[in-house]
Amino acid sequence: MRGLGAWLLQAHLWLVLFFLYVPILVMAALGFNASPLYALPFDFDLVWYKALTGNAKLINAGINSIGIALVNTVIATVLGTMAALAFARYQFRGKTILQLLLFPPVAIPWLVIGTAMLVFFYWVGIKRGLFAILLGHVALSLPYVIVVVGARLATFPRVVEEAAATLGATPWQTFRRVTAPILAPGVIGGALFAFAVSFDQFVISYFLAPPGTTTLPVEIYGAIRKGFTPEINAISTIIIVVSMGALLLTARFYRFGGER
Amino acid sequence: MSDVVVTNAVKKYGAVVALGGVSIRFQEGELFGLLGPSGSGKTTLLRAIAGFVTLDEGSVLIDGRDISGVPVHLRNIGMMFQNYALFPHMSVADNVAFGLEVRSLPKAEVRERVKAALGMVRLTGLEARRPKQLSGGQQQRVALARALVTRPKVLLLDEPLGALDRHLRQEMQIELRRIQRAVGITTVFVTHDQEEALTLSDRIAIFESGRIIQEGPPMEVYERPRSKFAAGFLGEANFLQGRIENLSGGLATVALDLGGRAQCAVPGGEVGQSVTLALRPEKIGIAAGDGGINQTRGRVTDVVFSGNSTTYRVAVGEQSMTLFRQNLSGSAIEPGSEVTLSWSGEHLVVVTP
Q1: Mean of per-residue pLDDT scores for chain B
Q2: Residues of chain A contacting B52 with CB distance shorter than 8 Å
């Protein structure tokens, strides 16, 4: 019986991996195929990657996306880490309610949030544009950062800060040499989440983008509506390689959850 | 190497009194144990000396200098924490070097002193390890080396051996004592383990409800407890209630509530006065006898063999008495036996109830 159970589990694992990765691999492969109609036989060519370099709209959208994601990462990580520290270390009025309020934005459909933001921004007079998109992204990614950094803080041994003080370290030295390095994996993890939430964000960006300016996911969506070309495969492959690379690098330097 | 004087230390947390006016002097070079149940104020006192607790009243002087307003990092103390509080992201050598590096000492000197400190705690060769890769005993040695390498004026230890198993704890007690002697540093440690306090300390203080109820060398406090609490907390004790029947030549004859009579010194006692007498279990003899003075008869209820000694519980009247016997001969007394307990009057200690 144990043999059968183990075999089923193995099969399950391989099926999951198959359905997850085979579409991605097929998509990546077809980006290197010369035929614009995805016709076989496979004929290796970099024509779609060359075409990308001439596609100003896609490049502009890419620059917008990366720029927004980077700025969003910095803002959300700083604000989120500060908020997580406040939650972990201080008692203040309304703390529990604030902590509870962190979770609904993660659960509410982005479509709903996007609509709400559009209406709200219109009402307070913030125009559709990159700034509005950035505001939306920061609001969306903050809870992720707070939760990830908070998880690290929950296991942070406060007593090591006391130990540093008894050894003669000033509060600043203690923060720089003890607190920050121990929290770093959590903060990096939070930053990664913030980047991913923003870079992958379609709905909010779609709602808040003005005509003419877009982000990469919105541009890709627009391109698909007009007609599918292997250029999309090429840009998608680049996105996947870059984000997987960043993730693996981070995982290499910081073992999540564990202490180094 | 300094003395520490605490005067009238008071600390309240709302209605809870953590320290209710504690005055004590830790002498230069001595190893002083603060003993008491949890919540009795001993840790609060230690943390007040370290600077983590701000006293509501009173003062702490190191070498005659009031350090009440001095922040922790300028107090020049060494502290070892209960779970060692090693820096998890640093190697053993970096942990020990930390206190020297934040003082911006030259690199060569830092290396020299780290090496000497690790040699002192016998950890040479483990410099590159992370704390996670060390055993509990090794982690403790790192913590000790780290606390001493800055040459602090006072060494504070918070339950230093609490996290170790019994065998390792005894080994580390000897080690800690050796190092403390070698360095000659004034050391204050907190423990709730009475055996640890007795073994390690030059002097001890017993805390109860935010106050020191007795202090002195371990043997003196053990043999001459002043209160029922002190007698019961430090080792085991039988308590005999009685009334002074007669006084002659400094000796009181006490009629015991459980029957029989005891004779012992009761300083300041008066005829008719009720007294509580403490009697250590190892000071009681068990044998056949007639139940005369400083003797009483009872029936053995429990016999607990523990290798080199045996613990007997004996029902005497309404009370159960405990006594220890070294296992000198092979024969034990059976439960249910009628026995006579006897003791010497000098071992009866009058305690406050």
Answers
A1: 88
A2: 162
Instruction: Kindly state the helix (H) or strand (E) to which residue B172 belongs, with its residue range.
Output: helix B166-183
Those residues with Cβ within 8 angstroms of residue A149's Cβ, 6 or more apart along the chain or in another chain: A80, A81, A84, A85, A183, A186, A187, A189, A190
Can you give the pLDDT at residue A257?
43
Distances in Å between the Cα of B194 and the Cα atoms of B155, B197, B212, B278, B307 are 20, 5, 15, 17, 21
Chain B residue at shortest CA distance from A171: B73
CA distances from B160 to A146, A236, B289 (A): 36, 58, 47
The token pair at A223 is: 């391109």
Query: Testing the interface with A: which of B70, B76, B84, B102 to mutate, by most A Cβ within 10 A?
Result: B102
Phi, then psi, of A220 in degrees rounded to 5:
-60, -45
For B14, B62, B293, B339, the CA distances from B297, given in Å and listed in that order, are 51, 55, 11, 6
Q: Across the A/B interface, how many CB contacts are shorter than 8 Å?
A: 76
pLDDT of B79: 93
A88-133 per-position pLDDT tens digit? 888 888 888 888 888 787 788 888 888 888 899 889 888 888 888 8
How far, in Å, CA of B344 to CA of B285, rounded? 9
**Which of B23, B77, B113 minimizes the C-alpha distance to B186?**
B77
Predicted ipTM of the assembly: 0.81
Query: Which tokens go with B213?
Result: 């109820």
Instruction: Give pLDDT, residue A253.
Output: 61
Question: Cα separation of B158 and B114, whole Å?
Answer: 23
Given this model, what pLDDT does residue A89 score? 83
